[in-house]
Every structure is written in C-alpha cells, then in structure tokens.
Amino acid sequence: MSSKNAAEWGWSHKHLIGASYAMAGLVALAAMMLYTSPIQAHAVDASSPLGSLALDGLVANTELCDLDYWIEGTDLCTHGPDTTPPPLDIVGSGALAGPQVTASSVICEGDGVSGKRVQMMYVRSEDAPDRYDEYVESFRKLAIELDLIFDASAHATGGHRHVRYVTDDDCQAVILNVVVPASANDSFRGAILAIRELGYNDPDRKYLMLTDANVYCGIATVISDTRPTPDNRNNHQAGYARVDNGCWRHSVAAHELVHLFGGVQTNAPNTSGGWHCVDEWDLMCYSDSPFYPSMEYICPVTSQWLLDCNHDDYYHTNPPAGSYLATNWNVANSAFLIDRDEVHNLPPEVEISIPISVTGLMAPATITVTAQASDSDGVVTKVEFYQDTTLLKTVTDNPFVFVWKNVVSGTYTITAKAYDDAGASTISAPVMLVVVEAPTEPLDDMEEGAPRQFSIVHLPFVVRLKAD
Predict the structure, then answer these.
(1) How many whole angstroms separate alpha carbon 222 and alpha carbon 80?
(2) Residue 5: its pLDDT value, please?
(3) Stated pTM of the model
(4) Are residues 19 and 86 in the same domain?
C-alpha cells in the first residue's frame, strides 16, 4: 500500500466525492514532508523477525514471473509484501475502524454464487482462537466500504462499478470461516497451499483472505497480461490476496483486490515497474522495488483513497479511443466487477392475497397464497413464501402461487419476499391467519362403525315405601 501520512485512513462516503478542504492543506503538508525522498525499502526486510516468514516460499523465477516472486509449489506469481500505511501496525490486531456508511448491504447480482465473484474468508490456524463471531459483522461492513472505493472511483469517469461478491439472500457478502493447519499462516505460500487443499481453487473466484495473523499488511498474486479483451488471464485464473489483522481495513483490502484484478500492469504510462504507479495521489501508488522510482504529484491529496490518479493507468469506465486503457488491460473491465448501473436499480413490488371462505380456516387447512410481484425496471426472478422466519416455498415462475396443505390450528404470520434480476428484494406486508379446530358434530347412530352419542336423561325421582 502507498505510504500516505493521513491522520486517519478511514473515510466517509462524502469524503469520496468531496473531502474537507480545510483539512486537505494540512494533510498535503504532512504528506509532502513524508515524501521529501522516495521510500528506499522493500515492504519487509528479509533479515527482520517477520521477514524470514513473509518471504518464505517466494523465490526468483524469471521464466515464470519475470521480475516478480514465484510462489513455490504453485503456478502463481506475486510482487511481494506491500508496505504498511500509517497509522496501521503490522503487529496490531483487528484494525477495523473505517468510514461511516449508510448502506446496509453490498450490491448483489443474480443468485449470489454463479459466475465470477470475490469470495471473502476469515482464515485462522487451528491452534489460534476462533474470532469469527466477534468480527464477521465488521467484515461485512468492510466489504461495503471496499465497494465504495471502486464505485466512487468509477464516478470520476462517469460510470459505476461494484465488486461482484459471493452474496447470500440478503445481499450480504458471504464471509467463510476457514481453518488451516497450525503453521500454514506463517507465510503467503503456506496459506495458499492450505486453502487450495480445502478446495478453494476455482478459476471463477478471487479469494480475499482476512487472515488472523501478524506476518504481512497485505500481499496478493499478480498476473502479467496486458490484452484489453475479455480473455485476459486476469478474468480466468483464481487469485489470492491476504490481509493480516493489523491491516484489516477497506483501503488495504481494495489495494490488494486491484492487484487480483490485474492492476497496475508494468507497461502502464506511470508504472513503478513493480505493479504500482508513481503519479500521486492514488491508492495504488508508491515507490517500490525493484526500481524505487521518484514520485510525481499530479492529483490532489483528497484522491489518495481513490483509484487511478488522472485515469490513465489502470481504471477508467470509458477511456478515450486509442488511449492506453482503450488498448491495454483496464481493471474497470474486470469480469469480477459489476459494470451495470446498479445503484439506480429499483426494487420489485410485492403483495400477497389469501382467499378465505365464509366458513373460515379449519384444521387441517389447505391455504392458497398468491403473490402479486412486479419490477418496473426488470423482471422478478423468484418469490419466497415465509411463515414468520421459516421458508415455506420458493417459486421461480409467474404466477407466484403457493398451496400450503395440512395446516394445523394456530396463529400464523405470512409474508412473501420478491427478488429482481439485479438481486434487489422486497418483503410484502404481513398477513395474519388464524386456523381453528373443526367442531365436533354428532354422528348418525345408524352409520356403521360410528360411535354412539349418549345424552343424559333426567327421570322422575320415585320413593318406594317398603310394606311392613
């Protein structure tokens, strides 16, 4: 990550489209003081206690990875560990402070699983405490914050982009709880081999590992392919990014995802030669190995959490014809990003009706529930019928009708949840039902096998006197 001396690496949504200019001068002054000379160090010193672990299994192989590291035992390359941006600390724990966001979920698409997607996962070694329940809601918030970086950066070139996560039915990013052998998290290589052994090697996935360890700030695999077409290998090969707990932050995770999506290619106009850029301010720019180039300051400091200063190196939603990004790989065209104008998608409308006869509902009841569902800017893909929080039936074809049979006596609350083709959903107003026991009626005594009905008969009270 770029070493930017901002007082706080979190931002609000307003900061993405217009930060406080009163503070910008102070931040710029502090940043310029930091950059009086280029950073002349790799992300991790191999002689440090952390360095021996961080570089384990990363070896030179110019045939496979040019000037990058080959991850031994795999077919993957990495540019190596990224620097730790202040005020984060590589030996910290759970640095999850971030911007205040108003969104309650990420943008979802389709069934949440099919196609190219980013899979987030909490990764811990088997001898470490399980903190999944403690952090899972914070990880979901991080996913929203990370997505805002991609979309706010797209706004600068007149478009929209969203991370295509693996999502659940509530449009929340799915965070897997993954346990690896005791020593696997000691290195990037070890973690990759361990999760591959568990089956996480799908070419349609980019794996974002939120690792409960203290070896790196961030590190990711990279693929050198400058072709601007959809068959670019960055669209068709599993990628792995790791962010350790001292750097659990939206900005770090976004930086590593850009690497997974193919930025910044080493032929970009402002390349550093090591998968970063030199034209600040930019989330992907810093002076890195192997060349440690001098930095240039093209864009205002308020853009330091956005992608692609000057929109000419790796991210533009509509690049000019003949420009570098029109003729070379453009991360904005990644198959792992949603490129439709999702933020303006209107959710579907749904209401339910339940015809009830004049005799009411008597157990065992058969209840027909019909959902009237429509979508003004798309189509309704499915309707789910619920009794309280229990899913009764999913219907994918219109008319959306569910016949509920053998319903016992009781009081029930029924709702329907409709989904559109962009993943948005709406829950209907609830309908309350009361099913009663059928009354017991006398049976015909002449009916064969029928139990007889008896009535109490009151006879006159007669006293008989005994004769002497």
Answers:
(1) 10
(2) 36
(3) 0.66
(4) yes
